[in-house]
């Protein structure tokens, strides 16, 4: 027994759960990603802060070192009188003020090498910036900036004292021919070694020490804040990742459960389809659309066709269908393209007999493959009954035409009798015989044409489709009915295009259709009295619609029209508005069936109390 909760068996609930878990996973994944991004930012900021601290310490040390280097140079100059020290003194001032570029290797021991190597040392020139600007580039607080300014001002005062000592040394050495005879005065020594000089130098170091302390304190506070934020973002990253992982695992479990439910549902659907397919009374075939092979056939199909399932699988629909019916691949299940989901055909059964069938085909997906699912109805008996009813309707129409035909024959027959009596009365009058004989022949030919038309209309048997002129068929129908039309005092108007292409039809069936529609119009007009309509009119038009490649035959009458409630049922078999004994109700149903079998269509347009239009559309072969 399956003890899983009910909701885990519901596809909809599982899908909702899957979507909720996916949304939660996306949220916590984004949450973790933002945590990672913020963590990286804070980590980079921590490194940047450490670098700024390091650069600040280096620059402060450089300020202090430059002061020491200036002291060393001026003292060496005062003691030795060597002008190289005065030169180095000026270079140190120019570098610190930004008037000269700072060498790339400018560090604590730079001038130690410089003094030893003199001007032979190779220097890579770097930036040309004052020491103050370099401090500003690193980024220091306002209080730290004031401390540096104080240190720089005090260093400049000391540099002025040193500059005065250099000037006095230069004046003294300028009067000495041999530099070896130079000896510093007590005043010069006191200027650069005395108590005042040392106190001034000490004053320079005090703000620098405070600056270093401030940098250390600020850096510590910034790093502490960064570390707190880093820990927060790291926790967000870790917990977000853990929750995302848990949701992902839950999502996987839900997904596999959902997939299992889908598989079970699919198996249940396939089993239901298999049971319905196998046990249904309707004839069913499953066909491969690529090659037309029968893939499966239910028991009803095996019984109807007389083949076992194994025998069916060796057949294609092309082998089952009769080629003489003229089915195209679009009408037979088993083609890759189905343009007509319902088609008429004729199939062989195992004993060699043929059966008329109606095939309903639709594409389906089954076991991840595409098939054509066809339901087949045996319409042999139905077609026989329809043909029989067509014949009965045709004979009924002939019966209605009999009086008109008799009237048409009576006139020329009376003329022939009258001419014959004249000859009998004057048997020897050769002139009279020559005069009357052509008239007798003409009236006999007229009788022959009437009989020929009646025989053609009443001919039975199966006819094949062939290219025919619809105008001729229309004229033949009018010829048979013109007596009735004239008798009922109906005005007939016929309009036709000069060029109407031939259409592929069974001429006798279309004659029957045309006759049926014209008779319907006559009967409709006879329902009117003189007060309802002064002029009774039938207008027949024939034209070619080039854009749609259709021949259109329209029969219009200004009769009473069709009531709105009946418009959807007038084509149904055995539907009629005529009195008992005056109509079978098969007329419009047969017309619709004949036009469908010709690949055309039959439409009725009507306004109650005004008119009715019966329109036939015949497709024209593109060739």
Topology of this protein?
Blueprint: H1 11-80, H2 83-97, H3 110-117, H4 131-138, H5 142-174, H6 186-193, H7 195-279, E1 283-287, E2 294-297, H8 299-305, H9 309-312, H10 317-320, E3 342-348, E4 354-366, E5 369-378, H11 380-425, H12 430-458, E6 466-468, H13 470-487, E7 491-496, E8 503-505, H14 507-526, E9 537-545, E10 550-557, H15 587-597, E11 601-607, E12 611-619
Parallel strand pairs: 7-9
Antiparallel strand pairs: 1-2, 1-5, 3-4, 4-5, 6-8, 9-10, 10-12, 11-12
Q: What does this molecule look like?
A:
- This protein is α+β, with helices and mostly antiparallel strands.
- It is 59% helix and 13% strand.
- It is built from 15 helices and twelve strands.
- A hairpin with a 4-residue loop joins β9 and β10.
Q: What brief labels describe this structure?
A:
five-stranded antiparallel beta sheet, elongated, 623 residues, alpha+beta, single chain, five-stranded mixed beta sheet
Range of strand content: 5-15%
Helical content (DSSP H or I, runs of 4+): 55-70%
SSE order, as H and E?
HHHHHHHEEHHHEEEHHEHEEHEEHEE
Unreliable segments of 5+ consecutive residues: 325-337
